[in-house]
Specification:
alpha+beta
Length: 477
């Protein structure tokens, strides 16, 4: 990749922090989000007081960066670490924190005395699905030049080379991004120069994805390369953003989990980590009181939902404990949607959810037909779930309303319960009518609404002509 201009700014002045690092803004600017991420890697943010980000900025609300480079500098202004922020076309993300294969701290005077360019080198295993033409096996190697050597005293050139190696250590792909011309500092440009700069580069972000699709088409149709099925991300990665349906289900699941912990006889705390950042990505659930006759788990149970697919899968099951057991027992990381630190205690916790079935329903008479229809959908759902590529066993016990259904029906406010019910009904209907794809069902619904609107307009126009004749039609026009 050839970059004719290097667009850079100090990290404190870069906008749109929501586009980088962890999902969501957390109410933090980029420096705050960087500090939060460094702490999650057991690093002290004060060891990296200087940081620069090389990326393609958001333009007209759109941003897509296959890879962004973070350069981290020590107090001696030496580049001692990098963060590679990798995004794939499935809206998934992986952050690689790299400290270099051989990084030796030097004094500022020693660094200033250097006459050669500083190189940063590192290798690490590949564990993130980027291209459908490569598996998740293998490793990466990075060779990056410090663009501000020595000691952040100059505006240098970008020159990064990434090599993808196979599991047998054979180089499969070499990608390079480098500066072909001197860097541009936006702070020194006048209005006309800024306009020319934006006019020259505004289109690059918009054509990145179409270019990827074009090249993928060449590899598939011309080169006949093997296509690898996209696996679910590992717990170290960041899953795609949730759909509106998954957000609705997550809200009810979170409330259900909170109620379950509060009424449990198991002495434990639960740390719930959701990929959905609204209202909060993390929440700690605690018992109201300890049961002294029960064993106590000192450390909290950690439930980390890796991908929002967890919620649409969970909503399709009648028995939550069976869904969780299937997920925990699977040996295939490519299809797992959550991580749990203490499976035994966690499953015991959900075995207690059977008490949800004894709750008294509080829905209105007008809601009864909808809940009955949801029950019917669960009783008549297909034996194989079209929406999942996995061949794992489905729930084989009695169907009817699930524990999550009953909780929403009995404990949630009427508006939220209705939203949850309608969402789950759409998921189950999509299994029957749309190959497990709610998006297809939404598209069909939109076409039906447009068609009905057109028929209503035509019908009203015909009725007008029938009542008032052709003259009435002329007068109305």
């Amino acid at each position: 990749m050839n970059s004719n201009r290097l667009y850079y700014l100090d990290i404190l002045s870069l906008p749109m922090s929501i586009d980088y690092l962890e999902r969501g803004g957390r109410g933090l600017d980029l420096r705050g989000k960087l500090n939060f991420y460094l702490r999650s890697q057991d690093e002290d943010p004060q060891d990296y007081p200087y940081a620069y980000l090389v990326t393609a900025p958001r333009f007209l609300g759109y941003s897509f960066n296959p890879v962004s480079f973070w350069y981290l500098y020590s107090r001696q202004k030496e580049m001692v670490a990098m963060i590679l922020e990798v995004n794939n076309t499935f809206d998934e993300r992986r952050l690689y924190f790299l400290k270099g294969s051989a990084s030796n701290q030097q004094s500022e005077s020693e660094l200033l005395a250097k006459t050669t360019l500083t190189k940063f080198n590192d290798t690490w295993p590949k564990d993130f699905h980027v291209s459908p033409f490569n598996s998740r096996k293998g490793s990466y190697a990075l060779s990056a030049q410090d663009p501000f050597t020595p000691c952040l005293s100059s505006i240098g050139r970008i020159d990064n080379t990434i090599t993808l190696n196979s599991s047998k250590s054979h180089a499969k792909l070499v990608a390079r991004i480098f500066s072909a011309q001197p860097a541009v500092d936006p702070a020194t440009l006048d209005y006309w120069a800024k306009f020319r700069f934006v006019a020259s580069w505004w289109w690059v972000g918009f054509v990145t994805f179409p270019r990827i699709v074009k090249e993928a088409g060449k590899l598939f149709f011309r080169r006949k390369l093997h296509v690898w099925y996209r696996p679910e991300v590992l717990k170290e990665s960041i899953g795609r953003q949730a759909t509106k349906d998954e957000i609705v289900i997550e809200r009810t699941f979170r409330s259900f989990l909170r109620s379950l912990i509060a009424s449990s006889d198991i002495n434990c705390h639960l740390k719930y980590v959701s990929p959905i950042t609204t209202p909060s990505a993390e929440e700690n659930f605690k018992l109201k009181s300890w049961n002294v006759s029960q064993p106590t788990l000192q450390e909290p149970i950690v439930l980390k939902v890796i991908t929002p697919l967890f919620y649409s899968r969970a909503a399709r099951y009648t028995h939550m404990s069976e869904f969780l057991t299937n997920e925990i027992l699977t040996n295939d990381d490519k299809d797992r949607t959550f991580f749990i630190s203490h499976p035994k205690f966690f499953l015991e916790l959900f075995e207690e959810s059977r008490a949800i079935g004894r709750l008294t329903a509080t829905y209105s008479v007008t809601d009864r037909p909808f809940w009955s229809f949801l029950r019917w959908l669960r009783d008549h759902r297909p034996s194989s779930r079209h929406n999942e590529q996995s061949s794992r066993a489905s729930d084989i016990r009695y169907f009817g309303l699930s524990e999550l259904d009953r909780y929403a029906m009995c404990r949630e406010p009427a508006e939220k319960a209705g939203q949850y019910r309608n969402t789950v009904m759409k998921l189950l209907l999509s299994d029957i009518l749309a190959f497990g794809s709610p998006e297809i069902l939404d598209a069909v619904g939109y076409i039906v609404r447009v068609s009905l609107s057109y028929l209503v307009v035509v019908g009203v126009e015909s009725l007008w002509v029938w009542i008032f004749g052709e003259g009435g039609k002329t007068f109305r026009a």
